[in-house]
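Notebook entry, structure prediction.
Reason for the run: the old model in the group folder had no record of what sequence produced it. Starting over properly, with the input documented here first.
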Amino acid sequence: MAQDPRSRERIPFYMLLPNLATISGMCLGITSIRYAIEQKFEIAVILILISGIMDGLDGLLARRLNAASDFGAELDSLSDFLCFGVAPGLLVYEVFLRGQTGVAWIFVLVYITSACLRLARFNVARATPTEETARHFTGVPAPAGAMLGLFPVFLYMSDAVDITEYPMLVALWLGFVGFLMISQIETFSPKSIRVPRKLVSLAMVAVVIGIGMFVAHLWMLMVAVDLVYLASVFWAIVKSRGRVIE
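New structure, fully documented this time:
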């Protein structure tokens, strides 16, 4: 049998970096599930946050190194479903919903399924990019959905609110976040950010403050980030005049 000539090709190592970053993020998501099952919730949440950083890094590497590929795009989507759909859903279940009625589990399924549908829609839209899709996302993207889905966990970790007494409220929140992901709301995209030259120094100082908060008060920082993002989503709903599903 003739050997495929492509099997003899040598690929530069740097071309593999985006996929290696994706696989690293996926492994972090899987490990997060393990720690959630072991009731080590803090570690589980941190691993999901790091997987979010890896998700941003793999796309950046693919663009900067001109190493984007269909294989990498599909791998990234599968990793996102695990890290931002399955892992957050199971983590919230372990923290708040274990031992509750089967209705609570239904909302976990709604959240995870919505993440899957959101990513499938993104894959289809990616094949036919437009100027509009570059300026905003349609619906809350999966990584942002994961951060919103973990909002009750952030509150719990920060000791801001004892939400463990309201498990069904948490379940309803997961369902609401799932709805936001599959909606037609035009949500914020980082690609649309343009910093005025005179504010560059101020933006750098803001990043330094954010890093300090990440180290000293991580959970309060995540609560604040979620609240700001949620405010932007509600503003988008107002601008759409309630047309969130088509």
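Summary: Strands lie at 136-138, 186-188.
The old model has been moved to the deprecated folder.
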